[in-house]
Amino acid sequence: MGLSSNNRNLLSKMATNDGHGENSPYFDGWKAYDSNPFHPTNNPHGVIQMGLAENQLCFDLIEEWLKGHPEASICTSEGVDEFKETALFQDYHGLAAFRNAVAKFMGRVRGNKVTFDPDNIVMSGGATGAAETISFCLADPGDAFLVPSPYYPGFDRDFCWRTGVQLVPVVRESSNNFTLTITALEAAYKKAQYAGLKVKGVLINNPSNPLGTTLNRETLRSIVRFINEKSIHLVSDEIYAATVFSQPDFVSISEILEEEVDCNKNLVHILYSLSKDMGLPGFRVGIIYSYNKEVVSCARKMSSFGLVSTQTQHLIASMLSDNDFVERYIAESAKRLALRHTTITRGLAQFGIGSLKSNAGLFFWMDLRKLMKEPTFEEEMKLWRVIINEVKLNVSPGSSFHCSEPGWFRVCFANMDNETVEVALRRIRTFVLQSKEAETPVKTHRWRNNLRLSFSSLRCEESMMTPRVLTPHSPIPHSPLVRAV
Ligand SMILES: Cc1ncc(COP(=O)(O)O)c(C=O)c1O
């Protein structure tokens, strides 16, 4: 919503500036979805939400656990005895049971190759709050972090908006499958210095949103050497750690710290949350795990602004302490993510649409370069508008992830049911077929425009689909302005 100049004067510069980033196409796509959300029977021609990195594939397992453990909730007759104590507890260290369970879970998600000390855990309102807190702790306004691009758009809001910190992209390119190189890291460091910025650290996101890829051991070692040499921080956002569904296995920065003898652990901090790995973004369980006791202490004081409610801590402590459940959940989730990923990427490949090979995440990085007339960001936006307005799929353009090359799009695949996936694939197929037709020089094609590919109104098979009821996995309309995932 635009602000009147009257209000602009009445409110603070911080509150009214653009740092939140909600004017980007990333959020515009959600607005398009919100105004016309797909529903299999009520609105079969609506927009399908493929711009939301939610993990909705294993809710049945969590619901089953909740039904079997009514004592874990203070809102049941079995659990109400804990009500008073839970309602009163507000220590910013958090419940010991919660920190213990989260520390153990973090170890389990990393294959039990490393252990985490519950005393180094600071809670926050999701990874969003954790990111801002760590930014406040490590950097002053004007200081910078280097971040490999393409990167999660929310980082601009979380690391920079209210802190005044800046992000400097470390360019990753398609020519080497968007691999992070130390040459690019060095170049970004020099560029930042040349611009007069004080570089306070490197921010990595492993597994990566939006690429869906993991950093290998060698790259992680090089990054650790790099930050040690420069004596700057390393923040590793590992919120997709348990979404790794195929080889290679996930390597956490915590593993590297146990191997590298010459590493100053005080420089390393991990961001985590249950939003993706457990599919619980609404619970707002975020974690800063720092190897630096002073950072733990500062972050804990700051966490007063975004604690996890004790009721949630109580429930999560109980759920994550159930080893059998955790084992089953992690294994089943990876299996379902793998299946969904294969279904969509193979489906697209059949119509000639490629994507970056990936092994993790709730999304993949779709390559539509050959559908563009020219390799420019203007063409990318034109193509994106066709996809959202005519194909009626909300995918996110690469430019909103600060990708340096036009033509890439992030496609989320775990926030919908199988039937919606089928509809999405059918729409894409129709789009590609019609676009191929459009490429042949037929004078009468009324819908040919300046894109190499174009799309008419959807006359796809969807209209012939049998009516269906909304299943629990169908996307539900939400306000686009309250989330960045
Ligand atoms: C890489 C990354 N970090 C942080 C977040 C924020 O997560 P949370 O819901 O825990 O605040 C997201 C959400 O999409 C993300 O993709």
Notes on the protein architecture:
By secondary structure, this protein is an alpha/beta fold. The chain has 2 domains: 5-54 and 362-482, Alpha-Beta Complex (Aspartate Aminotransferase, domain 1); 72-325, Aspartate Aminotransferase, domain 2 (3-Layer(aba) Sandwich). Helix content is 40%, strand content 12%. It has 16 helices and 13 strands. The chain has helices spanning 5-10, 13-16, 25-35, 59-68, 83-88, 96-109, 126-138, 154-161, 182-194, 217-230, 253-259, 293-302, 310-320, 323-350, 377-391, 418-439; strands spanning 48-49, 121-125, 144-149, 166-171, 199-205, 233-237, 268-273, 285-290, 354-355, 363-367, 393-394, 396-397, 408-412. The strands form 3 sheets. The protein has a 7-stranded mixed sheet, with helices on both faces. A 4-stranded antiparallel sheet has the order 9-10-13-12. Strands 1-11 form a two-stranded parallel sheet. Helix 10 (217-230) links the parallel strand 5 and strand 6 (233-237). Helix 6 (96-109) packs across helix 13 (310-320). The radius of gyration is 23 Å and the shape is globular. 45% of the residues are buried. The model is unreliable at 441-483 (pLDDT under 50). The chain binds pyridoxal-5'-phosphate (PLP). Residues 53, 126-128, 152, 154, 205, 209, 237, 239, 273, 275, 281, 286, 485 line the site of pyridoxal-5'-phosphate.
